[in-house]
Amino acid sequence: MQPLKFKFVLVAIQKITIEQFLIYRETYPVFDVRSPGEYGHAHMPGAISLPLFSDEERAAVGTAYKQESREQAIKIGLDYFGPKMRKMVESAEEHLAGSTAAGRAEPEKIILAYCWRGGMRSSAVAWLLDLYGFKVYTLTGGYKSFRRYALNLFKSPLPLNIVGGFTGSGKTETLKEMEKSGAAVIDLEQLASHKGSAFGNIGLPPQPTQEMFENRLCLELRMKLPALTADQDAAPGSQRPIWIEDESQRIGLVNIPPDFWKTMRSSPVYFMDIPFEERLQHIVEEYGQLDKEKVIAAIGRISSRLGGLETKNAIQFLEAGNTTESFRILLKYYDKWYLKGLHNRESLNSLLVKVALDTVTPLNAHKLFDQYPRHENR
User: Fold this and answer.
1) What secondary structure does DSSP assign to 219-254, as a single string?
2) Which one of 186, 205, 261, 275 counts the least CB within 10 Å of its CB?
3) What CA–CA distances, in Å, run from 255 to 97, 114, 206?
């Protein structure tokens, strides 16, 4: 009887750079193999959680590594990893089948994976999935390299155009119309899950963490960058702009990254100058149906700046069903603070483009385009 012969296949796992990884993620599913807690705090948008260790297991492995040895930590990790192998393979298989059915991936069994530093966790999961038959790409430097990429992107010179205007001007609706018309648009409030005012979180999902907000903004910027000219030597001002709404640096619980904020503050502002009564009518229609108790609580949060008498009057009007007069008080308050923020810019006179408008309508987008010197290339 001839002895059995086994043929071993070399592992085909491939480490790729963050630039390659971000290109591939547009086609193939991405798995985040860090712990649930790490993933929940922040992750690459669109990534699927496939944790090698639970939060408790990760802590135990880390403790063993620090207090005992690398070898002991690996042994403990293997104890946790072994019973999960089949379930992890099946989970990856299920997600790949779903993405293929949705047209996101080619028939090849190709997946991407990353951990915190591109070390043992992603290597272990990649080994398992490669053994099963997947083609696996891991991220050199792991999630940390994505964070470096994001923070560096915010430092880049970006051709931003700011859509400004007092509260109730319909800036968000205007941006949506711009996007429908083919312009490159980023909705910061949507990324932050907050509309920017004291009432901005009412009726919206919970806000992301600061880090997750930055991750979302990074990939939105990356997605909009192809809308810019491919000519790297183009003269300043010849690139197509990215239109965004004028915001305070703080949107609810998250902050616009400092470097990106600096670019915003030095970018042209297209100010929609709309009559007070028109804007008042708009915000009554937009916010008038919100839960009254939540609106009252929101008014209470700005009472120190609104003033005791105005706070009392605004709440009394609201309780009496006179939403218009309540919001009139609030709109005057927000106009004052917006004006202060608008003028808190260097060289405002050279940045500000006032656009006189009669009413609040998404179609105001086209009047802003008319003010943009290269609006035909929007």
Assistant:
1) HHHHHHGGGS-S-TTPPTT-SPPEEEE---SEETTE
2) 205
3) 38, 26, 15
**How many angstroms from the chain centroid is the CA of residue 111?**
23
CA geometry: angle at 285 spanning 284 and 286, to 5°? 95
**Cα→Cα distances 112→118, 181, 215, 224, 336, Å:** 12, 34, 18, 23, 50
**What CATH number is attached to the domain comprising 308?**
3.40.50
Query: Does one domain contain both 32 and 132?
Result: yes
Q: What is the DSSP string of 305-325?
A: HH-HHHHHHHHHHHHTT-HHH
**Is 4 inside a domain boundary?**
no
Of 77-91, 225-239, 288-302, which has the strongest mean pLDDT?
Answer: 77-91
pLDDT in tens, 118-163: 999 999 999 999 999 999 999 999 999 999 999 999 999 999 999 9
The per-residue pLDDT for 103 is: 54
Q: Do 20 and 39 sit in the same domain of this protein?
A: yes
Active site residues: 115
CB 273 within 8 A of CB 168: no
Reported for 329-336, long-range contacts at CB under 8 A and 24+ positions apart, including other chains, are 330/299, 330/306, 331/166, 331/167, 331/168, 331/276, 331/279, 331/280, 331/283, 333/302, 333/305, 333/306, 334/166, 334/167, 334/197, 335/166, 335/167, 335/276
> pLDDT tens, 50-109?
999 999 999 999 999 999 999 999 999 999 999 999 999 999 999 888 765 555 544 578
Alpha-carbon distance of 81 to 33, in angstroms, equals 12
8 A C-beta contact, residue 107 and residue 90: no
